[in-house]
Design goal:
Structural class: alpha/beta
Shape: globular
Number of strands: 14
Helix content: 10-25%
Largest sheet: 9 strands, mixed
Order of helices and strands: EEEHEEHEHEEEEEHHEHHEE
Strand content: 15-25%
Oligomer: single chain
Radius of gyration: 19 Å
Amino acid sequence: MTVLAWIATFSGETVKSAPAFPASPQTLVKDDIVKHGLNTAPPDRLMTPLQEVECPQESPLLQGAVKLSFESSLTLKDVEGENKGVTEGEYKPSDCTARQSVAVLIPHRSRERHLLYLLNHLHPFLQRQQLHYTIYVIQQAGDATFNRAKLLNVGYLEALKDYSWDCFIFHDVDLVPENDHNLYVCDKQPKHLVVGRNATGYKLRYKGYFGGVTAMTRDQFHQVNGFSNTYWGWGGEDDDLRIRVELQKMKIVRPPADIARYTMVFHKRDSGNEINKDRMRLLGRTALVWKKDGLNSCSYETVLLERQPLYVNVTVDIGKPQN
């Protein structure tokens, strides 16, 4: 087993991490609590010969706004049957080389129906954009308070063990894109993809909103040290990420409002994901702690990693809130 060590430097401050141990696919991993490195060299499992022709700047397969359906009779086998070109959550265009390779990260716990609806629409949506992509579902094990941000940090670190992805899409499970001109690719600046949703009358929730679905390159996310790991419960972690982006003098960009539209699948607030009453205090500390709270301090135990037909499932124990 190859052991990698890294040293990450943020603005002159050097932080050391423990070694990273790549998880083997299709295996159950126990007692593997490690602090994972930012620059883990990916194995060659996804490395295949590139096609000769680059895909066009604008895919000819795009349809624009599409009618979404959420049938109660839909099954996972139905979705698998409609996506024969997807293997272990991964897809590559057969007739050209994708312009970007994209990892879609979905934090999850006890939302199987929402996940099914999202997979049903997201796979053909991404294929019409002629992307090379893999969908990762990061499941929080146990009954501790939900921590969306830490799960997304885990997803980023785990996905980089597979491939050197160009772009990462951080995607809530209950938001389904309505228009495939809303491109799931990264830009020169961090990109916010949810300008409007049905639940808010297709208007931006508030001026600084940076949640729901966001896109950042590997280097952009590394530069801000990822998400904070300290937001347990609902709210605050997306604003924390926005502050980190602003501290690095980056600017958030958005697609046009008539394209960046989503349908939010209705649900009641989950047990274990109550409103984080500590979020405003935490936001006041972001500028002081971002260098040491994030990717470089994200420790977790991998409980299960399995490559299902439509996505890579990563189930992890991320601990509990500290009093």
